[in-house]
């Protein structure tokens, strides 16, 4: 797995980008905070977003006041590999 997805925060950002139709930075942060039931520091959150963009897992496009994010093919692969790894180790139970 790419070292850039070793961070749980970065993996969770990718999961939410994958799930949303309109993944803006504000929406991603709000969804993470709902998931964690806690405040995510802006510096930590935007640092993780920047790292994902810089390392080719996400793209960022300006769209008016909000930036839109999308998974790149490399980001999709990394997310799929992580999901497969989880399925191997956490199988569904009857």
End-to-end Cα distance, whole Å, is 30 Å
Shape: globular
Radius of gyration using CA atoms only: 14 Å
**Biggest sheet, spatial arrangement of strands:** 1-2
- Taken together, the total number of domains comes to 1
Structure annotation, total helices: 4
CATH topology (level 3) name: Arc Repressor Mutant, subunit A
Structural class of the helices, strands and pairings? Answer: alpha+beta
Relative helix content = 55-70%
What is the arithmetic mean of pLDDT? Answer: 92
Name the CATH homologous superfamily. Winged helix-like DNA-binding domain superfamily/Winged helix DNA-binding domain
Would you state the CATH class? Answer: Mainly Alpha
Architecture, according to CATH? Orthogonal Bundle
Low-pLDDT sequence parts:
none
Largest sheet: 2 strands, antiparallel
Q: Could you tell me the number of beta strands?
A: 2
Order of helices and strands: HHHEEH
Strand residue content: 5-15%
């Amino acid at each position: 797995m790419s070292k850039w997805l070793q961070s749980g925060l970065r993996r969770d950002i990718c999961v939410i980008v994958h799930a949303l139709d309109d993944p803006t930075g504000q929406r991603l942060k709000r969804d993470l905070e709902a998931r964690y039931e806690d405040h995510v520091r802006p510096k930590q959150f935007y640092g993780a977003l920047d790292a994902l963009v810089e390392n080719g897992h996400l793209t960022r496009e300006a769209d008016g006041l909000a930036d839109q994010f999308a998974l790149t093919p490399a980001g999709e692969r990394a997310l799929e590999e992580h999901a497969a790894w989880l399925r191997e180790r956490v199988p569904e139970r009857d």
